[in-house]
Write a structure and sequence with these properties.
alpha/beta, five-stranded parallel sheet
């Protein structure tokens, strides 16, 4: 009866004693999330189905984060449509323009616990696998079916377990680890696989660092990015949620399990170069002048990321011909940064601190780059046109590398 974490969670959700990789199951959904960018399409499809009420108004979570405050009449009208839906459906868990990025605030507000099925109309919903939940992104049409029925079909994925061993050097972090993994196995190296992150290095990581790994599982094709819950997980969840939950772990002899070992003792900071996330090189091999540095997103906008950047920026200035934009991932993060004096450090360094939201990450809101401009970003994607002009270029890195590079005005190894 040996199974992986994904298989055990999907078996529970489909009321089965056992499921196997490749099997199709109909699973009960515990949490369904849609935001201001994907929500309107899901609502349109929901209305076409003709269902009067969502299956459970307490299990639907709607945050506004992609285009907030509204930057156009189109986004303003989308916000109006979403607010009307929230009111009509009596959605309890609605977070308007002041709370922050969806993947950050869901765990902050206690919606994420181990062992559950979480779907979101956003590809980086896999972030919540850091808490031991089977969490994955779905399309707006699928979301309409979830809103109507509370169920969705899944093909049970095979599992790749990345066993990470070693001690990270100073100014090397989980973002460098996941970039290295993606660079090694490729953007399609884990297509429709459940990506698990395990080993002594993961045990030493904070929940914030673990969320980075799970967040970017989709960048190598993963269906979800799971980490086995431990004491750190349980402590975080109990602090933020009053829901009952059950933890699961992968059996070492599960038939669909493949293990890949990574050793990180000598890992140096990594950078993903244009225009693909798997085009990864050590930062020491890159020498590129920068127009913009973006610190934030659902990948690296948490308080630990801001602390890492502030430690490097304190008492220094952003380079004259470079602009630095900082987007805290949530209002809670912003408040902590204020209390700790981080915002003052950023302002004195001539960085621009923005409201908690996705910012330039999606290429559809504030802080976009123009033709021929180069952005260094702590976000998760660097596709052509991702942060503005298709003629611009985006590099991806850690918060420490971003801060050091902002000071120099070119991509630089953080010392």
């Amino acid at each position: 009866m040996s199974m992986t974490m994904s298989e055990k969670i999907l078996a529970k959700a489909s009321q089965k004693n056992r499921v196997d990789a490749g099997e199709i199951v109909i699973a009960d959904i515990d949490i369904a999330m849609m935001h201001d960018l994907t929500g309107p399409l899901a609502i349109e499809s929901f209305n076409k189905i003709g269902t009067e009420k969502v299956w459970d108004n307490n299990k639907v979570v709607i945050p506004f984060d992609h285009q907030v405050p509204a930057d156009s009449l189109t986004s303003a009208n989308n916000h109006i449509l979403m607010r009307e839906f929230v009111k009509k459906q009596n959605i309890e868990n609605f977070y308007d323009v002041n709370e922050g990025v969806c993947h950050q605030i869901l765990p902050e507000f206690g919606h994420v616990v181990p062992g559950e099925i979480i779907v979101g109309a956003d590809s980086h919903t896999c972030t919540h696998g850091a808490f031991g939940a089977f969490s994955t992104g779905i399309g707006s049409t699928d979301m309409a079916m979830v809103l109507s029925t509370g169920k969705l079909w899944f093909k049970v994925p095979e599992t790749i377990q990345f066993n990470i061993e070693g001690t990270l050097k100073d100014n090397v972090c989980s973002k460098d680890v996941i970039l290295k993994i993606i660079g090694d196995i490729g953007a399609d190296g884990a297509t429709y696989k459940s990506c698990e992150f395990s080993g002594p290095t993961i045990k030493d990581m904070s929940m914030s660092d673990r969320m980075v790994l799970s967040n970017m599982a989709v960048e190598m094709g993963g269906k979800t990015g799971l980490i086995e819950p431990d004491e750190k997980t349980i402590n975080y969840v109990k602090k933020h949620s009053n829901k009952n939950f059950r933890t699961y772990k992968t059996d070492n002899d599960a038939s669909s399990l493949k293990v890949i070992d990574f050793e990180v003792n000598n890992l140096e900071p990594q950078v993903a170069c244009p225009n693909n996330v798997d085009n990864v090189k050590p930062v020491s091999e890159i020498d590129v002048e920068l127009d913009q540095v973006f610190l934030g997103s659902c990948t690296n906008g948490r308080i630990s990321d801001l602390r890492d950047a502030a430690k490097i920026l304190k008492g220094k200035k952003v380079a004259k011909n470079t602009r630095m934009l900082i987007y805290p991932a949530s209002r809670e993060t912003y408040s902590k940064a204020l209390d700790e004096g981080l915002i003052k450090i950023f302002i004195e360094a001539n960085a621009l601190v923005m409201n908690p939201c996705c910012g330039p990450c999606l290429g559809g809101h504030t802080g976009l780059i123009g033709p021929e401009e180069i952005s260094l970003s702590t976000s998760n994607r660097n596709f052509k046109g991702r942060q503005g002009s298709p003629e611009g270029k985006v590099y991806l890195c850690s918060p420490a590398t971003a801060a050091a590079s902002a000071i120099e005005g070119r991509i630089t190894k953080p010392e």
